[in-house]
Amino acid sequence: MSDSDGFPWEIGVHDAHCHPTDTMASIAGIPEMKATTLTVMATRGQDQDLVLQAAQSINSQAPEGPDRIIPCFGWHPWFSHQIIDDTTGEAKTEGQKEAHYSSVLVIPADDTDFAEFVKHLPEPKPLSSLIAETRERLKQFPKALLDGRDEQITPGSREGRKLSPYKVKIDHQRAILKAQLQLAGEMRRAVSVHSVQAHGTVFDALKELWAGHERVVLSRRARGRNQDAEGAISAEKEDSDGKGQASSTKGSEGGANAIGTRSAEACQQELLPFPPRICMHSYSGPPDQLRQFMAKTNPSDVYFSFSSLINFTGAHARKVGDVIKALPEDRILIESDLHTAGPEMDDLLEDVARQVCGLREWELRSGVQKLADNWKRFVYG
């Protein structure tokens, strides 16, 4: 699409999820792109440093402007078998290569190639090392995100890479996911999560981490009582000293409203085991599953991003409209999910932005502004 189409790039268009480090030659073209910011995902061991280097290189070219790359560190489930969970104190990390891969991969009953397959796999990396390294990278980039995922893997390909017939067991994926989500909570960073055929598993993992930290939702009657109490406190204060300025402080110290206020303040100081904000990347679940992620008691703010490549093609295209229409307008993001930076990525972002604006019946300019505001709130809080 051309500039003559009147797309308002000047507002700011932000790609919530992409993989340009899969094609490192394309990174140099990012400064020439129309998109304002790319949220760039790492997926496996090699990618962590590539994403770091790309962010350092591109962002240093315009140090006074907004970052063109927001780096996201983490491991894709396709590669989670390369991680050995040594955090329980039971796993041995040396000399356990074949035993580890046998325990975390689903091996077909008639398989005869597994032993040969394992020979070509790396020595498994301890989960404790992965978390420690990711923590240091997050410290290096105060705006960086985590990329935590969980999905039921199926045979196929990704950008031309052939996949093996072996699937990573869901329990192992879940352990790696939860460890990364807990790190995000510790560092107060947002997380991009992809769940393919595993929306329930992801929600269950989040629910376990949220337990005991749920937001308090007051009933209408309780809110009414609180308003009456605040009015009475204000009137009493004015009667006693003729000044009403202390009433708001008084209201935050006692009464029903104090529950929510104290919870918010506690969240700023307490080390929490869950991320403050979560993006369900290229969400492909049905509309009725949105309710569990959007419950008012959930202490994380959950966003949903959509891409032309995944959501508006094939079987997913039949339900994406209902999902986008069902979401609150302040929880929608867009992405390219592309492995190459450049004009094609810009085109995909423009296409999905127009699709979302059309489904929501937003005027294009105001819709692009909403999407930009949503991304900034997701990344920066």
TrEMBL record:
Q: Write the protein's name.
A: TatD family
Annotated region Disordered: the residues are 221-258
For this protein, the parts annotated as crossing the membrane are none
* Superkingdom, natural source: Eukaryota
Tell me which SUPFAM superfamilies the record gives: Metallo-dependent hydrolases
Gene3D superfamilies tied to this protein: Metal-dependent hydrolases
> What species is given as this protein's source?
Penicillium chermesinum
| Family annotation (InterPro entries) | Metal_Hydrolase, Metallo-hydrolase/TatD-type, TatD-like
Q: Which GO terms describe its molecular function?
A: hydrolase activity, acting on ester bonds
| Pfam families from the UniProt entry | TatD_DNase (PF01026)
